[in-house]
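Standup, Tuesday
Yesterday: got the pipeline producing structure tokens again.
Today: sanity-check two examples.
Blockers: none.

Example 1:
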Amino acid sequence: MNSDPRQRRVRLAGDPLDIAGDPRAVSPGGTEFTGLREYLAMAQRRWILVLVVTLLALGYTLNSVRTEKPQFRARATVRLIDASRAIAGDMVGRQGSSPDMAFSGTADPIQSQIQILLSEAVATLAVDLKGLRIAPTSGEHYLAEIASAVVDDASPAKSATLTFAERTYSIQSDDEANSAPYGSQVSANGIRMNVAQKPAVASARFEVLTKEQAINDILGRFNVSGRPKTDILDLSYTGDEPVQTQRITNAMAEAYQIYNATNAQQFSKRRREFLETQLRQTDSALNAAMSAYASFRAGRQNSVASAVENNATASQIETRRIELDSERRSLEALLASARRPGQSVTTASVRGLVSSPAVEKNAAVQSLFQQLMAQESARDAMVDGGAAPTNPDLIRLNSQVNVTSGRMIDAVQTQLESVNARLGALGQARTSVAPGRPVSLPSAETREAQLQQEMQTTQKLSGDLKGELQKARMSEAVEAGQVEIVQLARYPGFQIATGAPRRLAIGLMVGLMFGFGMAVLVDGLDRSIRRRSDIEPLLGIPGLVVIPRLASAATVKGGRIRALSRGRLPASTGNENPMLDLVTVTDPSSPSAESFRTLRTNLMYSQAVEKMRTLVVTSASPGEGKTVTAANLSVAFAQQGMRVLLVDCDLRRGRLHRVFGLSREPGLSELLLGVESEENVTRETTVPGLYVIGTGKFPPNPAELLGGQHTREKLASLTEGYDLIILDTPPLLAASDAAILATLSDGVIMVLRAGSTESAAAQQSMQQLQAIGARVVGAVLNDPEAQVARYGAYYEYKYAGQAG
């Protein structure tokens, strides 16, 4: 390792540890890492653009935060329950529930109710219920003293104004105005409002929305969320007016409850009407079945006894007759107890009927008894709940209990008549059958059993329908649905946080992202030559050297540089620092001067430029540094001990005389026109071996002057006295002079400016040189703004002696 303290490294970019902006560098992370570094380098190069876009985004966000109106939110809570079951108990059953609460196996009931809450139907009901078409105008507040506000559907009003006096208030809408005392309703133009007490303001103005506008506003800002693992829903509305948010939130909760209860009542009503129709049909079928059974029994008195038991003997008939006789007496006693003269049928007497063994197997009586028990339970529940004796529902239940009790007694009476008929038939069979002789049963026994079964089945169906009908009536009577309001919004909406820090952070991130994207886009659209590695793939010639930023005036000791001319010509043209660009003279130890010496070495020892006596230095466009390059390259060759002639061939805007502090006239134009000799136009400088010929007077036709045969002869004559002649020519795309001189020279150097020379311009210049057969030995990448360091790496060293 070289530890000489005199050696100081000024810049070393492009090694494996510094690959930012160099896509050719190989990173441990592979191509992804290299690509990321390239994008970061783009942002770094365009940092001003990134900063501007970021500041614009941040400013926009800050302005939106500052100008945004404060937002308020009100909350209400509801619970989903089966209110009809809670009031009427199990008598209602699941059949009485609203279809809103009936779900399929795959549906989420809470989510289904949330969707109903967010429906237009509920919002419409809320608008009509609470007059939500009335809203405060911009900058106004809704008054909490307004008890109610309603707008008729046919109202043509667009706005309304309330004026508050000491004891009365008035409303005006269009041309209609009315007043009323506080606490009373006042209307105008289809708007009805009630102000409970005098507000703190003298007047208030409101706008009247259309129903569609009001509904859309509610649904756009209304939100519903379910609490996990509960049947509770939280309702909230967010707006820019606190009292209005409270009104809308409460209106939606109440409208949802009414909507649900109305649907439940409509469902129960439809069910009741259906059951009443089915019951009428069933009762008609029951009457027909009972009539057919009684008629069949009366028509076969003689054959019934033989059908009592198959192949019964006379003794068996007698045994059966005794059993039926006992059953008859029991039934008569029960009926006599239930029908005491002067007394009404009681529940106790009816219960005695059911408890008798003679009746317990009667399916019709048992079905009626179950129906009676359900009716009595419903009646007792209403009495326990404090229902007055005059309550219509209680009166209806008492009437139903009495009707059912009467039907039970009628069913027992029918059973008694059946037993009497069978006893009569057995008596006749006993007289006609000799003892011990079997009796043959007729086929009518089967028919009797069928008729009896049909009657009992119809009786059971009738009883079930009556029970379901009673449940439907009770469910319809219950006014509550499945929604219970737990808590309404009791106070105006609270102001919610705007999240300004979070939004500013988001704005900053978005600005950075857009700025980064703009930087990548702008950088990608930049088609200029930016790296030394771009030259050869683009132009097909080698990049000879990168010329970094030249030393500034502050770095040059003395502040003013002496002239390099000798002899008869004036030393300066009047510029303060005419030789600042000659870093090979003013600051020979600088990296810039070293780069020119590197260019000289590359040209001297390259096989491609052997025996080169004349060298054209040109560029594609003006301002790319060809004159400075030609001047410093000439100094570098002269410092190597060569005899060098630098000729300013830019007969349009030549400035070599300024660089060296020389006089422009006489010069090349006078030499080509034959008015001056070579000795008179050639000036010796203080750099040993370096001579300069200025432009002379600017001729009107530079191209014709340079393209003549006399120019070729003069150039050949000059070649004999110098080791190397360097021609500083105009830009290729600005004039044809450089192309003409390129055909007369041994080689051409193309000067490019990093970040400034467009790729298309450089290619067009190369095509122009190739078309005339010029020999382009390479390109010099001039980098006065340090563009190469931004786009691609290069090495710079300073090696200078230091004291100590």
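Example 2:
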Amino acid sequence: MVTATIPVKQTQVESKTARSWLRPGWLSSAAAPSMFAAIWFSAGILAAHLRWFLPAITLFALMGSIVVAWIAATKAPRMAWGATALVFALLGIFCAEISPAVNPQEQLALMTGRTKRAIEGEVVRVGAVRESESAAPFSGRLRDEHSEQLDLRMPSLGTARVTVYAPVEAAFPRLTCNDEVRATATLHEPERFLDPGVWDWNAYLHEEGIGALGSVKAQDLTVVGQKRGWNFSCWLYSLQQTASKRLMDFAADSHNAKLPAFLRINSEDASMLTAMLTGDRSWLEHRVRVGFERTGSFHLLVVSGLHLAIFSGLIFWIAKRMRFSRLWATAVTIVLSFGYALFTGFGHPVQRSFWMVCLYLIGRLLWRDRSALNAIGFAALVMLAASPRSLFDSGLQMTLLSVLAIAGIAAPLAEKTFGPLLRGLRDLRQTRVDAALPPRVAQFRVMVRIGAQLLRPWVGRYLAWKVFPWTMRMLLLGAELLAVSTTIELFMMLPMAAYFHRITLFALPVNVLVVPFIGILLPCALLTFAVLMIAPSMAFIPGAATAAILHAVTQVVTAFAALRGGNLRVPMPSPLTAVLWMVLIAASICAIRARRWGMPLAVVALGLAAALLVMPRPFQRHAGELEVTAIDVGQGDSLLIVTPDGKTLLVDAGGLVGEKPDSNFNIGEDVVSPVLWSRGIRQLDAVALTHAHEDHIGGMPAVFANFRPRQLWVGPDPDVPVYENLLHSAAQAGANVHRYVAGDQFTFGGVNIRVLAPAPDYCPGKTPSNNDSLVLQLTYRDTSALLEGDAERPSEERMVAEGGLHSDVLKVGHHGSITSTTPAFLAAVAPQFSAISVGRRNYYGHPRHEVLEELQSAHVVTYLTDMDGMSSFYLDGKHVTAQAWAETAR
């Protein structure tokens, strides 16, 4: 009797569940109340971001809406969801409006400049002492030194992040939390490039509470006392830095160094382990990061929600193995997870993961349904209430999309396909269970039993009944991992394109192959770290296993990163594209729950959403006009030329003098490329190099890799390594190299281009010089622009002698140096507008006041990139108009 009633109950439950998918309630507030609240709370924050609301009126409206919601809940329950949504939206507006603004620390900003100043403050954050190579500003000469980064809180002024440095042979002060120090330092504002689409480091540091950066020689710093009390955050950061330093030092340990290369943790491995275990990314060099970035697996390398989830799962498993009660296992897991989250810096991804782990474990303890949507909704609500501005954080957005992908697509997909089969493998020998299962699952169990019986005579009873079902389980788990990874990658395409201008076609296979290894690597790495803290001489034993797994992971990542075509760089999606993408994503979530044609419709919707981001779109331009745009690249040059026919030319790509090859910042990748992507540019028609100085050529390799220009224009340049590397990049991109000298003329996109310098008989020296500069004059009908590069007096005198220099726009030579823009040359050009590309706080004193006075006397309207940001000039053939990005941003 009991057996007969089981399938009836099961069928009724399944039928009820299937019907519930088709009702509107599957996305109702009751299904995931925390997510419902978070969505409307976010809508309120967004409204406050777009428009200012008076907090008092908002509070009054909020109180009224609460009363309305209570009445609706008691009198008209069907209308309660609307009133509740209004409550959370108004609450989001109110929290956003009363949230304290970022402190601009204006008094501290007034102290910045090139002048050394006496400062005094309390150490509130101190890093580890490091030995590294560095270059003096705007100098290519490298030097070895010890350095330490610390945050100084100065009363009534603000907090400055100061780097203390000294030669390796000199004494270095030992600094600790709460030390009161006095120093003579040079303070400067955080670097900021006033270009559209470029990440604002200045705003980021202000969010972190840092108002200025600085540097001080160790000999100019004195500890004058120590403030009483305990600074927990400073102590925690010091602990993190100490742990990172211990891991880095382990790479040089004698026991570790004796192991074979595959089992030995080297310095690069140690830098990855510090990022993975402690959250400290500062040791990661560019060559280590690039492979993970190109394959979309960087989140596996650094502390993220995945790492905390693995850590929590490991602790919970150990607690259960030690026969802890359910309550104690939950408590121990939450406490240790919180400690690990604090140890890693308690960043936003870890915070969100910690709250989800807590909600899951508490829900498991109380025997309640564990909804992923509810968990992420709760975490998001807590995060947004604490900091409404975090709504615009890319990490929060990507976390929400990841969970939505799993709960919205992957989970229903698994439930319709292999999920029931996976559960059907439990208690395989219990045949009486079959009657209570759906026919498809029961049939699958019978087939697995038949397979085991057929294999038994050949492989034995153990392999047939243990290994064969286990293999089937692993195949189904692999299918589940593949479904989850595929869905997440499809959902991640929009934020990856918007924030990183990258679609990694190999992200799916890399994540499928590597994620299982990370589940093993993290426990091994934690064990290695624990042994390193307790018995350093024995750490090489677990370190060998850690190194082997880590090297297997990096080999997979490196192999996929080396494949061409897997790393697709894309421009910023248009607002319309983003809206259509979200509509298609919502449609796929709805479609997969339909009884008929659900999965095909969902697949089609997801495919169309992906195609939207890959499809080319017209880039932003002024049709029928010649555009000359000076990009703010600091102390360097980079000009974007857009012809009336829509052809694109980039003249120079900026660069940092003395930049190390492994630097994590590159002007071409981090400034020039985002500017082009923000315009919707996918490929450049041509790139021109004026000359081979670092501040003009440094960003070129990244530009060639990202935009694969069809042509490269150069003049007579010396065969130095950096120039040879550029020619190699051009060859890899398939670009045709054209060499020009004075007297050459040609047409490009409806614009007549005349080469003014260098002379046909010019011979470059052994090293690049300013007079190597390729000078171009662009003429469109009755308007023209002259691009001077860094040409100096000798080149200008020859051009004046040749004549025909009159132009409406002048890109001033050599950043406004006194060696260029002579009075005779300026008189011959007689421009209406001029642009000077110059860096803030540059050590050359550019632009010189003599040059600015000459331009002012000639009534030339001058734009400086350090003050006006990116500046554009539009030549329509009769008139010229100008626009500064800093003005439009304000």
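Quick observation on example 2: The longest strand covers residues 142-154. The radius of gyration is 32 Å.
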